[in-house]
Structure formats: C-alpha cells, structure tokens
Amino acid sequence: MVMTRRDPLAVDLAQDVWVITEIPQDNHPALRSGFAGYPANPRWSTAKFRAWKAGRELRNGLKLGTLTIRTRDSLLVPTTSVEPELPPPEPRSYRFLAPKQILVTEPAL
C-alpha cells in the first residue's frame, strides 16, 4: 500500500480553536472528540483512533503549556513559535492640529 502525503488542512477543534493537520477529513470528528475529552469509541478504525489520540495529545499540550492558542487567528501552535504581544500604542496628542476655520466673505457684486 502506497501512502500519499496529504495537504494540511485547518480544522476547527472547538469554538475559536483551530489546528493545521494532515489528518484526513473523514477523521476530523474523532480528532475533535479527543480534543473535547470524550472517550474513544471501540468501533472506530485504527485511523480514527489515531485521530482521537492526536486530539487528546493536543488538549494535554494546551493544558501543560507546550501549546498555546495564538490570539490573532485562534490557531493552536507550539508555545515557542508564538510571537510576543506588542504593547498597545500610546495615545497621541492631537493638539498641534488646529480646527478647521471657515472664512465667510460676502459675494462680490
């Protein structure tokens, strides 16, 4: 049997939690089930059980702090690859801008 490499897909694991994975789309429910903490279904195939186990490992990694949810796109990533949060910009003073002045003149006759 020849195994072909699949293109990575973004999978929604839970509300506002995404992960990039090569797990086939047929096994995404098992992946979500493992991430949510549900027990494995004994009738699942080996592929579905592996997807469930991967979901469980993602949940454990999030709990242990080795994985984190990136704020800008809600993607589950390793903690080491998270970019540092930039501090919010300081408020600027706009006192140097003068309000618009309207010059009213009488029409020329």
Describe the structure.
It contains two helices and four strands, in the order ββααββ. It is an alpha+beta fold and 109 residues long. The protein has a domain at 9-80. The protein has a two-stranded antiparallel sheet with strand order 1-2. Strands 3-4 form a two-stranded antiparallel sheet. β3 (67-70) and β4 form a beta hairpin. The chain is elongated. The termini are far apart. The model has no long low-confidence stretch (mean pLDDT 83).
General shape: elongated
Class computed from helices, strands and strand pairing: alpha+beta
Series of secondary-structure elements, N-terminal to C-terminal:
EEHHEE
Computed Rg: 26 Å
Which percent range describes the beta-strand content?
Answer: 15-25%
List the helices and strands and how they pair.
Layout: E1 9-14, E2 17-21, H1 28-36, H2 46-64, E3 67-70, E4 75-78
Antiparallel strand pairs: 1-2, 3-4
